[in-house]
Amino acid sequence: MITVEIRKQFLRLRTYIGLGLVALIPIILAATFKANPPQGLENFVDLSTAGAMNVAITSLTEVSAFLLIVVVSLFAGETVAGEAEWGTLRYLLVRPVSRNRLLAIKLTVSALLALIATALISLVALAIGVVLFGWHSLQVPGLVALSSGQALERLALATLYVAWIQAAYISFAFMLSTMTDRAFAAVAGGVGLGVVSQILNNISALNGTSYVYPTHYLDFWQHLFFGPPETADLVRGVLWQVPYVAVFLGVAWWWFNRKDVVS
Questions:
Q1: pTM metric for this prediction
Q2: Does 261 map to a domain?
Q3: What is the pLDDT along the chain (263 residues), one digit of tens a residue?
Q4: Across 147-206, where does the E strand assignment appear?
Q5: 186 near 77, Cβ under 8 Å?
Q6: Structural domain span for residue 181
Q7: What total number of domains does the chain contain?
Q8: Residue 263 domain-assigned?
């Protein structure tokens, strides 16, 4: 059944729109840097023209800040609510498929799409970076260059980290998808959580509580590229998603198993 669900998702236009958007932004960024090279040496954006690795890091930073949240919320929020909206949910449950198994399959496929979307950012950025700037060592602000082999390994780890940091939005949008018959509402909820979290996390007066927001540890993967990798905050970022996921998915399972979807 999971193969059928994957095939179904890749036949939908919204899948290609979401994946297309995250692939397009690195191309636009690289083309912009080529036409108007950034000035300075203070951050990764300033060093974007140094090579493909620098383009990838800049792209992963910029796309994960907002657009990736929208895309993963789209994948997760449409899963169950989309079926209800189209009137196909009741027919799925008429077959010998338990509600728990249906939710597990829907969640697995939406998480897989989120991982693909995140990986696509890095892969497309590397490809367009090679074309426009070549394959060189990673230039790190204020530090010596990092060999392309080391940088590539750390970029792979950073990509997985960014994908996992989306877990709170995926879980929240998925939870709302089990509660509503309107996919837009579930998607908007996931995006809204991301926007509110970003806003609150960036208010200096709330610095004492900013660590509780799901986006607080979003960019800490950049620590992987500065000298000996600092992993303490990355571990905190990974672990902090767990309570969000547990609560949101727990509510999703509880709600859906008590929801009247047949009448």
A1: 0.92
A2: no
A3: 788 888 888 888 999 999 999 999 999 999 999 999 988 777 888 899 999 999 999 999 999 999 999 999 999 999 888 877 776 776 666 666 788 888 999 999 999 999 999 999 999 999 999 999 999 999 988 777 889 899 999 999 999 999 999 999 999 999 999 998 889 999 999 999 999 998 888 887 777 777 888 988 999 999 898 877 778 889 999 999 999 999 999 999 999 988 876 65
A4: none
A5: yes
A6: 2-256
A7: 1
A8: no
